[in-house]
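Consider the following assembly input.
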Amino acid sequence: MSDTGGETAPHYLLKLYVTGKSAKSEVAIANLRRLCAEELEGRYDLQIIDVLEHPEAAETDKILATPTLIKRLPPPLRRVIGDLSDRHKVLLGLEVRPELPSRDRDPSAP
Amino acid sequence: MTDRAIPASVEKLPTGIASLDVIAKGGLPKHRTTLVSGTAGSGKTIFAAQFLAAGITDAGESGVFVTFEESAEDIRANMRSFGWDLAAWEREGKLAFVDASPDPEVEVIESGAFDLGALLARVRHAVQKVGATRVSVDSLGAVFSQFSDHSVIRRELFRIASALKDMGVTAVLTAERVVDYGPIARFGVEEFIADNVLILRNVLDEESRRRTIEILKFRGADHQKGEFPFTIVPGTGLVVLPLSAIALRQKSSDVRISSGVKELDEMCGGGFFRDSVILLSGATGTGKTLTVTQFLKGGADAGERCLLLAFEESREQLFRNASGWGVDFERMERDGVLRVVCDYPDAAGLEDWLVTIQSTVREFKPRRVALDSLSALERIGSAKAFREFVIGVTSFIKQQEITGLLTTTTASLMGGTSITEAHISTLTDSIILLRYVEMFGEMKRGLTVLKMRGSQHDRNIREFTIDGSGMHLGRAFRNVTGILAGTPVHISPTDVERVWSQFDAELSGRRRSTDHD
């Protein structure tokens, strides 16, 4: 409410770990790009890391599952695993409040 | 490896875990995955780490440790007590961790389909980085607890297991069981993921913990069946005691050694055999510790190193007793011909005692070992565990081609057999009985050689006396019968011949039956 105002809107630092060009990777990338464009326009940095090319990065971040989205900033550190198809849960994980909470909500979500 | 009965199709990789390779007939099937399942505290993580440690130290093979439960840092710390410096091996490029332990600080949210592609990429990377041929994964159950969608995990674990095989590594995967006798593992799929299944058990057996290892299946490869006791030793790790395996290979020597008492040597047909185990049975005070002392002195006089494992009396008491019989234990220790290991039986479990005895013998290299008494050790474990202990001790002594004298205490003063004796008399080569004999209102001591495998011996029951210079065997008791049963009865000389011939028949009959055990 008060912190949704422009002056305190936090900057997001996101990392998305994927495995090569698998279907799940493509879906996750597309879902995340769309969500960022809609919710975090102009205030996020997204790094996409392929674990097949950078396994040592996955080791450092202790990644097991792919896709895994890491929210490094703002704190706290959060992880969302999966192809990010459950938009509501991704927003929950990123602690981004949707502008119109009822519009995109998954009907099966609580 | 002399045992080559197995077809060459499944190659074995020696694990380096003492004696496991014997029951596994060469080791774990190479380039395959082996599930090691056990309840909490059964030694799974130690097994996983030892498999890698043995590869690094014994075979020059690098390893990868994938941990899902404890952090790499915890494992490094916990394994130090076994003498495995994991951190040093990591620095030397012989070991790599894949730390997949959960981070309690970070909240994880699941949103949509996922796989364990990242984990697989990390394992693959670690294997390549150190050139690993061995991989340990500890434990599969902990992967399930990190994710809510178990069907995905099941599928992914199959994928990882098959990827491990494609990499050509030999892998150990651990899994939790809920109970020691029941389903193989908690999630019901673990045993299908791996080619081979090994079970570690940690069972409460008559108030003492008994650890066993069992090879449940080796796909397409031979192994010994059944549960084998093992113990966990600081500085070493898991030590498996494969009883049937060691009991088979025993040489029999016909070299005689002195018992330390000249007359007893004569009774035995020239002394004890070099690689034999002698059971000495008697009630308290009949002279068991004295016979042991004589035996050790006999060794020391011949310049042989002797080891005394004493569980009945304190060190001071033993030394005082010995000097009362003219034997100077202190000097013998100073001269390096004697070592006395004196401890409370309850200080460790039977498996631990067996390992302690084995390592002491290997290190001190005695020619004679005396254990006083088995009865004291019998109290600390179940009958089964005790029997396995005695088999372990006797076969180890014979393997080392040394002489063992084991004592056992009979419950009744006047005779009868001890429980220990009933259990183990067939395992020993010779049996000597010490008995109290009441003669005309006077207590005397009698000794007889009941059994002497592979040799003629004196069947008489001889009277013996004890003085400041030790044990002295006198003449045979005559005109008395029932000594061994604890009920000596005087009989008229006319009956004597008949009775003794019966006694002889019984003895030789018993000897025949035990010799064929």
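Chain B touches chain A through 28 residues (CB under 8 Å). Ask yourself how this observation constrains the way the partners meet.
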